[in-house]
Design brief:
402 residues; 2 domains; 7-stranded antiparallel sheet; 5-stranded mixed sheet; globular
């Protein structure tokens, strides 16, 4: 198995300055490589520059600027150039598919927050100690940084990443050969229906409440953003102390919501995995669900548009994004694989409109958000429980077929 571990780093003030400088220099390298690729393409010869061409220049760049580029790991700089190359590959792929291209853009110092070391021992070293409190990670140009290792790392450390989130620094380890830890069978199976009123509903009638972390912190975040909006837009290096404090407060609040959402997703997924041998869920395409409705031109008036429900859909989109369905389903699949459980994604089409008793499908079966009443056999139940029951049946059918 492949698994990642994320630990909080506790650098000294000197190490914080060095870490920030490392990210700033990697960002400068990324932007310079992007500029070179842009200039080469705009040249009349239409020269194409790829990762290999940029990597070949690294030795000369490090020699020309030893104070900024020469002191950092060569392999981590190569990883930054690969990151740019992947961005261009994704751009060309979207162009060919007819999607919105999204040309790679220059990164500011506040939008470049990760440096990757492709191999443990090359520019970095993960020094796990017998006592977890003594764990440190050695980074070239930074030193031995203390790490708050809250759990054991299993498997072989392949890559090490340093990530900045607001005022916090994290080290992320990607490990392979991680042994599975199968749980004892329970004999239980469950289907889950994702929702907004309830975070999820199981086929046995259990409703997990939606914590709505984003909505809970919305007022504090709005106040912090209003304070930040008072300052003129400046680059990170030219901000005043009050401007930096306002920007840091916005980052802290966003980070708080993200951590709360992740914590809830991990705990909910862990409970399902421990209690059930098979979990069926809807195969949701969250990105498509968050799309805004298309405008409706008014045929009787040029340049005018008819109401299309955009305001109501915007509120629903905020609730869906706040729930974090995609993050939860990813965590659920990961924990189930590690525990030897089975997760079956099923097509969500008509799962909340199909009667589990007679099989009749109709929009009228669900007159309200939470009520289900079959127009054929008069079967009545909570709509989310009906959806979870149908999801479980479809999941069992798929599992038996496989």
């Amino acid at each position: 198995m492949i698994r990642s571990y994320k630990f909080l780093m506790r650098p000294t003030q000197r190490q914080r300055v060095a870490l920030a400088g490392m990210l700033a220099d990697h960002c400068s390298l990324y932007n310079a490589a992007l500029q070179e690729r842009r200039d080469a393409y705009r040249h009349p010869s239409k020269t194409k520059i790829k990762y290999g061409d940029l990597s070949a220049q690294l030795k000369d760049i490090r020699g020309f600027d030893p104070e900024r580029q020469g002191r950092w790991s060569f392999s981590s700089q190569q990883a930054t150039l690969r990151r740019l190359d992947k961005a261009f590959q994704a751009f060309f792929r979207r162009v060919k598919a007819g999607q919105k291209p999204g040309y790679p853009r220059f990164r500011s110092a506040t939008r470049f927050d990760t440096a990757v070391f492709p191999k443990d021992g090359d520019g970095c070293r993960w020094d796990s100690a017998p006592h977890l409190a003594d764990t440190r990670v050695r980074l070239q140009g930074v030193g031995h940084v203390r790490v708050h290792q809250h759990r054991e790392v299993k498997g072989r450390v392949k890559t090490v990443s340093v990530k900045r989130e607001g005022q916090r620094w994290y080290v992320v380890l990607a490990c392979d050969q991680v042994p599975a830890q199968p749980l004892a069978p329970t004999g239980a199976i469950v289907g889950i229906d994702m929702g907004v009123a309830s975070f999820l509903t199981t086929s046995d009638g259990t409703h997990v409440p939606n914590p709505r972390h984003g909505k809970t912190n919305a007022d504090a975040l709005a106040e912090a953003q209003r304070e930040l909006a008072r300052f003129p837009h400046r680059r990170a290096g030219n901000r005043t102390k009050r401007h930096r404090r306002a920007a840091d407060k916005v980052k802290r609040l966003h980070g708080k919501v993200v951590r709360q959402r992740l914590d809830h997703a991990h705990k909910t997924a862990l409970g399902l995995v421990r209690e059930n041998d098979l979990i069926a869920h809807e195969a949701l395409t969250v990105a498509n669900m968050l799309k805004a409705p298309k405008p409706k031109p008014d045929p009787e008036q040029s340049g005018a548009f008819l109401p299309n429900g955009a305001r109501a859909k915007a509120g629903l989109n905020r609730s869906i994004a706040d729930a974090g369905w995609g993050v939860f389903l990813g965590i659920l699949a990961h924990k189930a694989e590690s525990a030897g459980r089975v997760v079956v994604p099923v097509n969500p089409r008509n799962t909340s409109r199909t009667c589990p008793e007679c099989g009749h499908v109709a929009v009228e079966n669900r007159p309200t958000q939470d009520k289900f009443r079959c127009v054929e056999c008069s079967f009545a139940e909570h709509a989310d429980v009906v959806g979870a029951t149908n999801v479980l049946r479809a999941g069992l059918a798929l599992y038996d077929t496989d």
